[in-house]
Amino acid sequence: MIGVAAVSFAACSTPARDGGAQGALTQDPTQRAAIDAIGTPLNATEIAAWNIDVAPDGRGLPAGSGDVATGAHIFAAKCAACHGANGEGGIGDRLIGGRGTLASDKPVRTVGSYWPYATTLFDYIRRAMPYNAPQSLSADEVYALSAWILNRNGIVPDDARLDAHSLAAIRMPNRDGFVSDPRPGHL
Length: 187
Known about the structure:
The chain is mainly alpha-helical. It is 43% helix and 2% strand. The chain folds into two domains: 35 residues, no CATH class; 128 residues, Cytochrome Bc1 Complex, Chain D, domain 2. It contains nine helices and two strands. A two-stranded antiparallel sheet has the order 1-2. Helix 5 packs across helix 8 and helix 7 crosses helix 8. The protein is globular, with a radius of gyration of 22 Å. The N terminus is likely disordered.
């Protein structure tokens, strides 16, 4: 019942290209007002709180920074219970290793062997980790965790400090292992 109502409202809120019955519904001021009254408009601050995506080129990365040593401490405290003490996996995915295995019979897909962009690591950690408290980490903590994971995969040096500029500049080992999306449009 709810699904039918949602489809009906969606159909009413989009004018028909042919000017048919759907188009007529949106022209009726009473029905248009009823449709427009659904929900609550959001202000820019409310939208910004949800607009946390990070693009492959680094657009959307927040201010802040973090280093490998700090990342090691955060990982031990907030990530190792699921991903293992050294990122080798546990109840959570393996994060470290796997380089050179993708063409083998037993590919090991990790951040260091499979992921094409370092910014994706930041985006995923920021949105979804830790599993029991997603979006609870500060930008500095996410930069530090990214630095530690990338360091453990041999991608950044021990003294690396990542920020929006340096993270976006990292070229991941499997960057060229993906093909472009041939569909029209872009992100």
